[in-house]
Amino acid sequence: MKKRYILSPGPTSVPSEVLLAQAAPVMHHRTPQFAEIAKECFEGLKKVFLTESPVLIFASSGTGAMESAVVNLLSPGDKTIVIRSGKFGERWGELCEAYGVGFTPIDVEWGKAVKPADVAAALKKTPGAKAVFATHCETSTGVLHPVKELAAVTAGTDAVLVVDAVSSLGGVPLRTDEWGVDVVVTGSQKAIMLPPGLAFASISEKAKKLSESAKCPRYYFDWRPALKSYAKNDFAWTPAVNMMFGLRESLKMLLEEGMENVFARHARLATAVRAAVAALGLELFAEAPADVVTAVKVPEGIDGGALVKKLRDEQGITIAGGQGHVKGKIFRIATMGFADTYDVPVVIAGLEVVLSQLGYSFKVGSGVGAAVKTLAK
What we know:
Layout: E1 5-6, H1 16-22, H2 32-49, E2 55-58, H3 62-73, E3 79-84, H4 87-98, E4 102-107, H5 116-125, E5 131-135, E6 137-138, E7 143-144, H6 147-155, E8 160-164, H7 176-179, E9 183-187, E10 199-203, H8 205-211, H9 223-230, H10 241-257, H11 259-279, E11 293-297, H12 304-313, E12 317-318, E13 320-321, E14 330-334, H13 343-357, H14 366-376
Parallel strand pairs: 1-12, 3-4, 3-5, 5-8, 8-9
Antiparallel strand pairs: 2-10, 6-7, 9-10, 11-14, 13-14
């Protein structure tokens, strides 16, 4: 028998309360009873998104919510700004290309954060740009980008700020209304503590106004019928009913903990992971690390792919390797969603075992010790 631990940046562990809620008998979605559940979910999501704007729910992965932003805000031939700083920043550009939307890329070296001044300069060079597409936590690099500062740049322009917060929403502060972020998208399988299958998008008044003139083809992801149904605590299309049961439970758990406490928990766990990494003589990959996923450079002479595989197959601990051109060069440990104090010593202990087996030289126990000391403070 081997107990399994999942500390990858999605999917993440799901609380038993959420799994049990999803096991309830199926309910018809066009009933007053389900409308009450939908209302609870819509209202709870606004509190997690820190917004008073509508938060739409789609039965899809987070990429579906990203696609909804592109097709509802833009028309073929429109001009936008796309910040490409990792695998998921690149996805914004790929979505724009798929719908014939033009964009000015801001290419940021993987591991580094975008500079707001570069976005301001790009907007000046691209008159008439209708949107800036950004990523909050770039999951592929572990970088947290300065969304608050980016919102300050777009605030005085006609461009809307659209943020991929798939791995950050519910784990690190993203103050949607306070900062002035127009569209925030995320998925269910990260800090929201659900299995994969739901996507969410908050929509500001500025974004809704822009969507009225958008000409990209849209049907399932069309915000117009979705918003009409939202006003009645309903859905334009059949929702993922039992996923909604789980969502209600996960939102209840997050809000009972309190979002500021949730953010503090994530920061505490990430700090402990970073302390362990430093004690092991390893180096962080991200210059501005996020509190939901820690990206670490694979030490010289160590096979990064073997490290992740041995940790998963032999130690029962799933983390993530690198993507794109950093595949085999970094590994990523997530402490998001349903993660608590003792997940950190477990993953660091497993990491020490595998590093030792692969021939990396370090003082055994130094990483675990550093993590425990940090958590004990």
